Amino acid sequence: MLRALARAAQSAALLPAAASGMGGAAAEALAPTAAAAAVCGGRAAWLRLPAARRAFSAAAEESGESISVTFKDEKDGSEKTVKAPLGKSILEIAHENDVELEGACEGSLACSTCHVIVEDQEYYDKLPEPDDDENDMLDLAFGLTDTSRLGCQVKCHRYMDGIVLRIPSASNNQQ
Ligand code: FES
What region holds the 2Fe-2S ferredoxin-type domain (predicted)? Predict the structure, then answer.
């Protein structure tokens, strides 16, 4: 919980800048939310973020652009770099490219088997804040780290190009 609150404060300061770097429907959808977060500075404003994220994802998917994402599997030491279309989740990207990332609940935030670890703190800091539901599920994940995320909750953005994600050697399924 403390981790979530600290990062919410940090991200409220970053969001307006992120919104200004977008175009079209995504920026329009995110800008009012970012402004609200900056003015209110509280958790209530952040509750509106998922809708903005969804709007970004739809616009990004339509753009047809992609980024490079590398998966490192700690189970067998294998490494795979794939092209990831903007707007798709890390879990979707993994499954489309035969990367062994489980995702037992298919993205309904009920299992934590899609746990990934962002290798580089710099990339982790660029990601949108995990919401309370993701944080709660992350707390139950095997091998939790300071840069852990759930793959089903992170959508591909341009600023993630070159990101490296480690897949832990085991997972906890709370289902
Ligand atoms: S797939 Fe179950 S929480 Fe992500």
Answer: 65-171
Whether 37 is covered by a domain: the verdict is no
Q: How far apart are CA 150 and CA 89, in angstroms?
A: 10
Non-local (6+) Cβ contacts of 10 within 8 A are 125
Domains in the chain, number: 1
User: Does residue 21 lie in a domain region?
Assistant: no
Ligand 1 contact, 107 CB (< 6 A): yes
Question: What is the per-residue pLDDT across 73-118, written as a single tens digit (0 to 9) for each?
Answer: 999 999 999 999 999 999 999 999 999 999 999 999 999 999 999 9
Q: Which of 108, 115, 167 to mutate to test the pocket of ligand 1 (most atoms within 8 A of CB)?
A: 108
The Cα 120–Cα 111 span in angstroms is 24
> Which atom of ligand 1 sits closest to the CA of residue 115?
4
Report pTM: 0.69
Ligand 1 atom 1 nearest Cα: 103
For residue 82, give Cα distances in angstroms to 4, 88, 163. 30, 13, 11
| Strand 148-150 versus strand 66-73 pairing type | unpaired
- For residue 137, being part of any structural domain is answered with yes
Q: Within 21-167, where are the H helices?
A: 24-40, 43-46, 49-63, 90-96, 121-126, 132-138
